[in-house]
Amino acid sequence: MTRLILFNKPHGVLSQFTDRGTPTTRQTLSDFVDVPDVYPAGRLDRDSEGLLLLTDDGKLQARIADPKFKLPKTYLVQVEGKPDEAALAALREGVRLKDGMTRPAGAERIADPELWPRDPPIRVRKSIPDSWIRLTLREGRNRQVRRMTAAVGHPTLRLVRWSIGDWSLDGVEPGRWTERSAG
């Protein structure tokens, strides 16, 4: 039977089971997930939080991670400033990055979500307001969300991947995981 684990990755944790090549030890998946023979389906940057799927099924891993399957990934993104309709429209249409145009994305302003506190907290600047957007992508370039929000003038402060396809973080606390059906 295929195993599928939904892990709520905390900020600062690497999306791999070992940390090679650094003199200091950083937290990895092995500090949280003690399940043999499962591997991450995709990545989530060290400074990002949220849903990371792990599985023991190579075909499922490829279907989740490979952009050709266009599985939607939804992010809750705290940004500097208050994006206007023009900034959101640019995200929806696709943004030109150094590696080319992004695919169109779902983008909307949202109320501040009820999330767990981040450790460490984001840097708050009294002179610059912040706000939240929900961004849904169907591709997965390196640091894409951060690059897209910066390209429209609203750098990312906090990034939480909330869902991948039909799987979401609903009910999964930070640093915890649950097993779900892969079907």
State the helix count.
3
Distance between the termini: 11 Å
Mean pLDDT across the residues is 92
Which homologous superfamily in CATH is the superfamily of the largest domain?
A: Alpha-L RNA-binding motif
What is the level-2 CATH architecture name of the largest domain?
2-Layer Sandwich
Give the helices and strands as they follow along the chain: EEEHEHEEEEHEEE
Residues in helix, %: 10-25%
| Coarse morphology | globular
Number of domains: 2
Q: What is the structural class?
A: alpha+beta
According to DSSP, the number of beta strands is: 11
pLDDT < 50 stretches: none
Beta-strand percentage range? 25-35%
User: What is the CATH topology classification name of the largest domain?
Assistant: Alpha-Beta Plaits
Radius of gyration: 16 Å
CATH class of the largest domain equals Alpha Beta
Major β-sheet profile: 9 strands, mixed
Protein model, in words:
By secondary structure, this protein is an alpha+beta fold. It folds into 2 domains: 4-67 and 167-179, Pseudouridine synthase I, catalytic domain, N-terminal subdomain (Alpha-Beta Plaits, 2-Layer Sandwich); 72-164, Alpha-Beta Plaits, CATH 3.30.70. It has 3 helices and 11 strands, in the order βββαβαββββαβββ. The strands form 2 sheets. Strands 1, 2, 3, 4, 7, 8, 9, 10 and 11 form a 9-stranded mixed β-sheet that branches. Strands 5-6 form a two-stranded antiparallel ribbon. The longest helix is centred in the middle third of the chain and has 9 residues, at 85-93. The protein is globular and about 45 Å long.
